[in-house]
Amino acid sequence: MIRSLLTALLLATSAAPADADVTIKQTNAGKGMGMSGTIPSTTYIKGLKMRTETVTGDTTRVTIFDVTTQKMYSFDSKKKEADVWDMQAFAAEMGKSVDAASMTASVKANGQTRQIAGQSAAGYDMEVVVPSSMGGADGPKITVKLVGPMWVVKDAPGTREYMAFYRAAVDKGWIFSDPRAAKGSPGQAKAMAQMYKQLAETGGVPYQTEMQIKMDGEGPMAAVMAKMGNMTMTTSVQSVETGALADTLFTPPSDYKLNVRK
Fold first, then answer.
1. Which alpha helices (H) appear in 60-207, and where do they start and end?
2. Is the pTM of this model over 0.85?
3. Strand order in the sheet with 231-242
4. Residues 127-151: pLDDT tens digits?
5. CA 186 to CA 233: how far, in whole Å?
6. What is the CATH number of the domain that holds 107?
7. What is the number of domains present in the chain?
8. Boundaries of domain holding 184
9. Residues whose CB is less than 8 angstroms from the CB of residue 234 and which lie 6 or more positions away in sequence, other chains included
10. Chain Cα centroid distance, residue 111
């Protein structure tokens, strides 16, 4: 779950320049639930396809999102096999655990500015609240809240592509984390998705996120949720490079075994 959260947050800072493919290098840092240190990552975007690579130790973990085919691929550098998820079917299943009508999300300008990667970024305060249940509609009730400042570069290269990608994905009910982790924390996954949609409405590209994740539960789950919550994560853009990317970056290697997951 920690790994999928970091992947989800680094996706929030990704964008593609107009009429060009892009490569974004980032750093990701977090505290809570055993997270420590800084994790480097690279994101590649080509149209409605996105590939993220996160390096931990001697292992590179890859996630590919293809909005057009509604497929998600996940694999690493240690095994010659990849998991394949049908995101349309998964989104329908997630809907059974999350009360979309009760979700609230807001992004408000806070009047602050910050220099990030040579760009002037405007500050926004984000709050997303998602009531949900674990293990289906009859499972224990939990509430997930994401709060924290975002630093957005207005009219940055790739703003149009950034907005198009996330609007298309979220409108289809997508989540941006490992589906296996999302099944255990559906509210958290949906909260992340709503965060991306809100960010796309700012008219710029987020170059840095400073997110705190809080979770509350009912009855016996309350103590567990409190322990899992109060996690913090920061993702910062280090560099952006443009240039054509090969189509093969956005599919698993041809010699990998594909495992269809549900």
1. 87-94, 159-171, 179-184, 186-200
2. no
3. 104-116, 119-133, 141-154, 204-217, 231-242, 22-31, 38-46, 49-56, 59-66, 71-76, 81-86, 257-261
4. 888 777 665 556 677 777 888 898 9
5. 19
6. 2.50.20.10
7. 1
8. 2-261
9. 28, 29, 30, 208, 209, 210, 211
10. 25
